Amino acid sequence: MGKEKKTFYLTTAISYPNGEPHIGHAYEAIITDTIARYHRLFENNVIFLTGTDEHGIKMLQTAKRLNLTAKQLADKNAPLFIKMLKEVNSTHDDFIRTTEERHKIACIEIWNRMSQNDDIYKGKYAGWYSIRDEAYYEEKELTKKNGQFYSPQGTEVTWVEEESYFFRLSKYQDRLLEHYKNNPKFILPESRKNEVIKFVQSGLKDLSISRTTFDWGINVPNDDSHVMYVWVDALTNYLTGVHFPSETYKNYWPANYHIIGKDILRFHAVYWPAFLLSANIELPLTVFAHGFLFNRGVKMSKSLGNVVSPGELIEKYGIDQLRYFFLREVSMGNDGNYDDESISRRVNADLANDLGNLIQRSCSMVQKNCDGIIPSISSELNDDDLNINSNVASLASRIEILVETLEFNKILSEIWEQISNLNKYFSDQKPWELRKNNNERMQTVLFITLNNIRKIAIMLLPVIPTSSEKILNLLNINDADRTFKSITDENIDISDNRLGEVTPIFPKVEISDE
Ligand code: MSP
Q: What gap in Å lies between CA 41 and CA 43, rounded to an integer?
């Protein structure tokens, strides 16, 4: 029997399909997909869930403006999110739409469990609500400009008064604080944890969890005049995705990571664990809040006309190039910037020059001087050979550690440090001169170079999957030998492999002088 696979469940936020997907949605999908791919490479049993959040007043209002029903709007836009996921090469296992029947069943169950625990009561809500955020705010959190109140996210709020069911959030204040303390990885990155703790310490009020002034949502059990607050509905998607309320949900639950943006941390780190505690369901292990992407430092907005569609960028640079750029350039948890110059610079310097040229130069030599067949080690290994081998191989265990903390920019800078060492090795050994006077040594140098390119390509599979596949195809590596374990497997010998056609893997992009 082999080693038992560990289950690994991770999710993105589910997006509002009230418009087309933008680069922020693509960014979140790319990060989450990269984590999922690393864990599959570590041979874990991964489930990766994403989807769309289709209920709520925001969807209803947008639909009305477009003369559509909310369901028609969701049906029109959900496929655009599915298309975007395909374009970014996402390997999600499931795409959930909250209007699906399976989701209704999960929501009713969690509501009933919270209610059985005496955590739901009927009252009247009178307070502020932001439709854009689908969030309730206390007046002390708002700022006033020209007579209008704004939420901490800068969105407009309106005064709402209606009958509502409430969730006894206040009851969970101490248990939440204790959970944060005892589970230091529950909220990451560290820098965001304090803002959550402060919010909870400042005193939690019970939360309104139903609406009566519109009916676009899941009905409250035994009371058709109320629909569930859209966040109760939306958060529950994480359970629906693993077949809750069927007991088999426990095969994957608790989720390892909920990957979300920093703007929705409160819902995930305060409301969601409180609902779960009430329903007597285990809490997810980590809620990771990533930063926001800005276009040249400016927030994307329709009114500024700077909304870039992921499709446009992918067409311009290629999806692996974009995946590489975001993961390399943005430190996870921080905000990031993108613009044409920085993307082009990264693509040309790191991909086309450092990695691309190395592959091109070394493989062309094998093509020309070894009949296209990877040579074997034909001379005794010297210190240069041993050093580069051990430096590249030791990256594998470093990466396993850095994947845990989602430090992709570090992973990539460490990989590129070794690519640069391998380039130096290749230039210093001068195999083109060895060709003339020491054929055995040339063969060894070419073997060592290509074998380390193989290892690097495997480490990069989760980040630039299509290009890494191309590199591994070029080296004619078996499918079975493309796992993380094979990086350090001494039995894998690529000598005698026939190379595929040597063509540039990363074309250079023109840098515009705008
Ligand atoms: N529907 C809610 C989430 C419910 S999860 C149970 C929602 N949807 S959203 O469409 O507004 O955002 C989806 C995700 O995209 C969120 O995690 C959000 O933080 C993220 N982003 C939205 N704009 C972004 C950027 N400009 N940059 C990076 N991520 C951003 O919130």
A: 5
Share of residues in the chain with pLDDT > 90 (%):
94
Give residue 4's pLDDT band: very low, low, confident or very high (50, 70, 90): low
DSSP three-state, residue 11: strand
Counting Cα atoms < 13 Å in the Cβ hemisphere of 238 gives: 28
The pLDDT tens digits of the residues spanning 285-320 come to 999 999 999 987 777 766 677 777 899 999 999 999
- Check the CA dihedral 176-47-309-313 and report its sign: positive
Closest-CA residue, ligand 1 atom 5, reads 13
- Distance set, CA 100 to CA 10, 63, 150, 233 (Å): 20, 19, 33, 12
| Residue 3 CB neighbours (<10 A) | 7
| pTM assigned to the model | 0.96
Given ligand 1 and candidates 264, 294, 330, which is best to mutate, with the most ligand atoms within 8 Å of its CB?
264
Task: Measure the CA–CA gap between 257 and 37, rounded to whole angstroms.
Answer: 14
- Summary mean pLDDT of the chain: 95
- Across residues 372-398, what is the average pLDDT? 97
Distance CA 365, CA 447 (A): 11
Amino acid in the structure at residue 448: I
Atom of ligand 1 nearest to the CA of 133: 31
- Ligand 1 centroid from CA 58, angstroms: 14
R_g of the chain, CA atoms, integer Å: 26
CA dist 78 and 283 (Å) reads 28
Q: Residue 28 in 3-state DSSP?
A: helix
The average pLDDT across 148-165 equals 95
Asked if 230 and 56 touch (Cβ cutoff 8 Å), the reply is: yes
Question: Residue 22 carries which side chain, given as an amino acid letter?
Answer: H
- Please state, in angstroms and rounded to a whole number, the distance separating the CA atoms of residues 204 and 112: 22
pLDDT at residue number 2: 43
